[in-house]
Design brief:
- The complex is a heterodimer of chains A (359) and B (229).
- Chain A is of the alpha+beta class and 359 residues long.
- Helix content of chain A is 25%, strand content 33%.
- The radius of gyration of chain B is 20 Å and the shape is globular.
- Classes of the chains: A alpha+beta (359), B mainly alpha (229).
- At the A-B interface, strand 7 and helix 4 of A face helix 6 and helix 7 of B.
Chain lengths: 359, 229
């Protein structure tokens, strides 16, 4: 049996109130800063005591408010990774990894240390002190130290947040490698949408202490169940809508009618489309007669190394206020092909890419 | 001039060393115990712990006299065991330890509070008992501060006069520490003797401050050769 969590804990501005069953696989916990993610992790690790509820792992009770059970952190066997690594600065790498292995005889402990150092690619650093390591190396050592206790679950609190981009992708690969070999619950807390998507199998979206979405990550990104989840998963383009007929809505903020593929049980209140799903028609003649193609003008743009974000205004040239309707994200190669074309351009909002959410 | 009687130096050093050892253990234990607690009762506890720092040493010495005297609760207890501390060498230790205790307690608490709680939490998740968390994580990380506290306590113990005089008196070769020797030298108009002891005190104090400077620099995290098991 996996990890079952059902807890309530009063925080300063709201209450953390969650109930879910984490599978024996990585679960990404996504939410903005201050959503209660860290508190959730700390409660599971036994570093905080929830006000109410129950936590069980493989059928074993870790916390039960009614029965006054609070298993101390040291007996929960939670492999915890902290954002700032929390390596003991007065101990070498080997001594850090060995901290949870004090019960082993000397020789066996040495073997375990070198095995763990090998697995986390820090072999050769055993005699260094944490201060002498890069951030990425420190987090690897922290991972080795957590894995040393053969944890019954892994709890990772923003493990990549303190790393720069290059080290982050290396550490991400390390985590993926670790997760693949580890068939027990993994909770990976992050505020980074892409990180949560890449590392988590399932996804739990946390917002102000409650679960806004929980389940298959692709499903959550493709069809967010609520406006909140659409925003939290990074959707930039959202318009209020009014139902016209089955398969057609009027987008009030965008001033157009949209054909949509998704059917909703309740009348939709909002429609959304992700920035990278917005497509451009090759020419106005090609666009004629197609679904959801609208003339647009470029308001402004912002570049990243490989992609460009285009802020677009539909139906008419941009006004002095710089207002825009849509954000489109395209690769630069594609952008090169149509950047010099005369306005209006034509955006295509594919009916499949548009999702609808109820009020 | 009679040959110098060196006994005040040895009495002072022995008293300060023993008193510092006691204060270190007691102050550290009190700080560790106090750190995990909060509430109005703790304000009272803090008040009692810090009282020897605020009160004039003569008042502390008088209280100790009441406590350890023939009719005092501890004095009676000791009398049952056939012992008496008043006007004996242990009295100098007790007086110095009590007066130095607040300094040790305060610095140890500050040092323990400065230890990043994440280290302690990491140790707990790795299966360490609270005792092991304290001994192997909190204490080594707080060590420079604790040591500074011990040096301050030693210095305070070395300079102790009022409470010592009240509880231990001035018995040459037994309870007469350097400060007491100075006082009675001045009183007896033996100025060269008083100056001699003053220079001795200055020398010891300078050595102590030098030691404090060296230790706090050497024990800074990252520069240190840390204590190992």
């Amino acid at each position: 049996m996996p990890l079952e969590v059902q807890i309530v804990k009063r925080l300063r501005d709201f209450a953390l109130d969650v109930s879910f069953v984490a599978p024996d696989a990585p679960l990404g916990v996504l939410g903005p800063s201050g959503a209660g993610k860290t508190m959730l992790l700390r409660s599971i690790a036994g570093l905080e005591r929830p006000d109410r509820g129950r936590i069980t792992l493989e059928g074993k009770v870790l916390f039960d408010a009614e029965r006054h059970i609070q298993i101390p952190a040291r007996r929960r066997r939670a492999g915890m990774l902290f954002q700032h690594y929390a390596l003991f600065p007065h101990r070498t790498v080997a001594e850090n990894i060995a901290f949870g292995l004090s019960h082993l005889p000397r020789e066996e402990r040495a073997n375990r240390i070198s095995e763990l150092a090998g697995r986390t690619h820090v072999a050769g650093l055993e005699r260094s002190y944490p201060k002498e390591l890069s951030g990425g190396e420190q987090q690897r050592v922290a991972l080795a130290r957590a894995l040393a206790i053969e944890p019954a679950m892994l709890l990772l609190d923003e493990p990549l947040a303190a790393l720069d981009a290059h080290l982050r992708s290396q550490m991400e690969a390390q985590l993926q490698e670790t997760f693949a070999a580890y068939r027990r619950p993994v909770l990976l807390v992050t505020h980074n949408i892409e990180e949560a998507y890449r590392l988590g199998g399932e996804l739990l979206v946390l917002s102000r202490g409650h679960i806004a979405a929980f389940g298959d990550k692709e499903q959550i990104f493709r069809r967010p169940p609520s406006l909140e989840v659409a925003r939290l998963t990074g959707c930039k383009n959202i318009s209020r809508v009014r139902s016209i007929s089955a398969g057609t809505v009027e987008a009030l903020d965008w001033g157009c009618r949209l054909h949509v593929a998704q059917e909703t049980p309740r009348p939709p209140a909002f429609a959304g489309i992700r920035a990278h799903h917005i497509d451009f028609a090759e020419s106005s003649s090609a666009a004629a007669g197609e679904d959801n193609v609208f003339p647009c003008w470029l308001v402004r743009s912002s570049e990243t190394p490989f992609r460009i974000t285009l802020y677009l205004r539909l139906h008419q040239p941009p006004g002095p206020s710089g207002e825009y309707h849509l954000q489109a994200e395209v690769f630069k190669e594609k952008w090169q092909r149509f950047r010099d074309r005369p306005f209006p351009w034509h955006v295509r909002l594919s009916p499949d890419s548009i999702f609808l959410v109820p009020e | 001039m009679a040959p110098t009687d060196w006994s005040p130096l040895w009495i002072s050093l022995a008293t300060s060393v023993v008193a510092t050892a006691i204060t270190l253990a007691a102050g550290l234990a009190a700080a560790a115990w106090r750190e995990r607690r909060a509430g109005p009762a703790m304000a009272l506890v803090d008040g009692i712990f810090l009282l020897p720092l605020v009160l004039p040493p003569t008042v502390v010495g008088f209280f100790l006299l009441l406590l350890f005297g023939r009719n005092g609760p501890l004095g009676k207890l000791l009398l049952l065991a056939g012992a008496s501390v008043v006007f004996s060498w242990p009295a100098t230790v007790i007086a110095a330890a009590v007066v130095a205790f607040p300094l040790m307690y305060l610095t140890a608490r500050a040092a323990l509070e400065q230890v990043d709680t994440h280290f302690l939490e990491a140790a707990r998740t790795l299966g360490a008992s609270e005792w092991r968390v304290f001994r192997e994580v909190a204490l080594p990380l707080a060590w420079p501060g604790v040591l500074a506290g011990a040096i301050l306590s030693f210095a305070r113990a070395l300079g102790e006069f009022g409470a010592t005089l009240m509880l231990a008196g001035n018995i040459p070769g037994k309870t007469a520490t350097i400060p007491i020797a100075i006082y009675f030298a001045v009183e007896a108009d033996d100025i060269p003797r008083a100056l001699e002891w003053c220079f001795m005190d200055v020398t010891i104090s300078m050595a102590l401050l030098g030691g404090l400077y060296y230790w706090t620099r050497a024990m800074r995290p990252g520069h240190a050769r840390w204590t190992r098991r």
